[in-house]
Amino acid sequence: PLDLALVPVAQRQLPETLSVQARADSVDLGVLAAVTTTVRQVAGVFSADLGIGGTWEAPRLRGGLQIGSAAATIPALNVRYTNLNGGLSLRGDTIRVDSLTATSEEGRAELTGFMRLERLTKPVLALNITTSNFKALDLRGYLAVTASGRLALTGPVFGAALTGRGTVTSGVLHFADLVTKRVVNLDEPWVQDLIDTSLIRTQRLGPQFESVFFDSLRINNLQLTMGEDAWLRSNEANIQLTGSVQVNKVRNNYVLSGTLQAPRGTYRLQVGPVTREFVVSQGTVRYFGTPDLNAELDISARHVVHPLPGTGNNHDITVIAHIQGTLLVPKLTLESAERDLSQTELISYLMLGKPTFELGSGEGAIVRNAFSSLVAGELERTFVSDLGVPLDYFELRPGDPNNPFSGAQVAAGWAIGGKTFLVLNAGFCQQTQNNPGSRLTNLLGASLQYRFSPEWRSEASFEPVRSCSPASTTQPPVSRQVGFDLFWERRY
After folding, report:
1. What is the rounded CA–CA span in Å between residue 451 and residue 189?
2. Terminal alpha carbon distance of the chain
3. Within 10 Å of residue 367's Cβ, how many Cβ atoms?
4. I need a labelling partner for 195 at 20 to 30 A (CA). Which of 88, 103, 203, 274 fits?
C-alpha cells in the first residue's frame, strides 16, 4: 500500500465501528489465481455468509464459509491437492476450521483447529494437521516425500511454527552419480534458473518459494522416521534408508540432523563397456545440521568375482565398493576383502575375470582406459570441490593410457548470467618428428551456449580438429571447425 498522508499520523485506522457483510453462492475458486501465485490451476466452488463488526483492535466475526470439490496446485511443493472439502465458522474473534480435508494421489490430510484475530490484521494460528500417505512434496530429481503423521501449526500467519512427528511412508532422495555424471551437467546449466524444482535443488531447498508464508514458516524439531519405502537414489544406486532425522527451519535455512542407516540396496558400477552390480551390506547417511542439507556418506557394497578357469586363482574375490564423501560430492573407492589388490587389478577382475598379467594387449588397453576414466573423475571432483577453483564446470578426458598427456582434453566453463554458458577447452599432443607442429595454441577451442526458453537453446563453437596421429601427406590438415546448433528439448 502507498502512504498518501500529507503529514505523519500515529493511527491510520479510524476508531469507529466496523460493519462489513459478504455473501457468495457457489462462486468459482478460480478467482484466486488472479490474486496470488501461491496456488495455481484452482478449481471448485465456495459459498459464504460473513460479517465483521467491532473495531480494528477488537473485531467481532460472524457467519461461515463452505468449500466444495476444490483442487489446487502448489508450485512451491510441486504437488496437486484434490477433493478439498470443508467448512469454516466465524464467531467473535475466532475463525474455526470445523473440518477441511484434501487428497493427494492415494493419500489424505485433515485440517482442524482455529485462527484467532488478536487484531484484524494480526491473525494467530492454532491448527492441527493429520495425514495418511499424503504426498507432501515432489521436487523431481531431488526429493519426494509421502508421509503419515500428526503436525501442529501455531503462531502468527507470517512466522508460524510447524512441529510434530511423522513417518515417511514413501520417499526418494537423489544424490550425484559417482562415475557417469560430471561435476556439472553441461547440457543443461541454465535450467537451474528456469525451472522451479531445479532451482530449489541447486539452492539446497533454498528460499525461492513464491510465497511469503513458506518463506516465513519455521520448523521446530519435526521428527521424521523412515518407513519401508524410503530410498537414496541416483542413476547408479538404489539404497534403502531407515532410522529418523530431525528437521528444523529458521528463516530460509532448512537444517537436518541425525543418522540414517542403509541396510540394503544395490549399486551398479559401470567401467568401460561392462556393468557390475554390487549389493549394499551396510552404511550410514549422517546429517550434521548444515544449511546446505549436505550429509556424510559411508556405504559399503559387495560384488563377488568368480575368476575364469585357468587363471591360476580358483578362489572367489569379493570386491568392496566404498561410497564415501557427501551427498553433493560423493567419492568411490574399491578394495578386496581377501587380499590387498590395486585399483587396476580390481577393475581387471571386475571386467574380465582375470588379473592384469594374464591380459592380452587389447584387454590391457580396455582396463587402462577404464582406470584412466575413474582417475579423471576423481581429479575433476578434487579440482572443483576440494580446491575450490572458481569454475562452474570442469572436465578432464584422458587420451592414451600409456601416455596421459597424449590426446588428453581439458574443458572449463562458466555461467554468464542465467541463460548463457561459456566453455573453453584445450587438447594436448606430444610433439614428435611426425607432428612437430602440434602446439597448444592450435588445440584451443571455445563454445558459447544460450538458452532461449526451457525448450530451446543454441550453441556456437570454434574448435580445432584434434588428432595426435601423423598428418596425412595426401590431404592438407583441417585445423579448425566452426559450428552452430539449435536444440529443441522436451522433458516428461
Report:
1. 9
2. 42
3. 22
4. 103
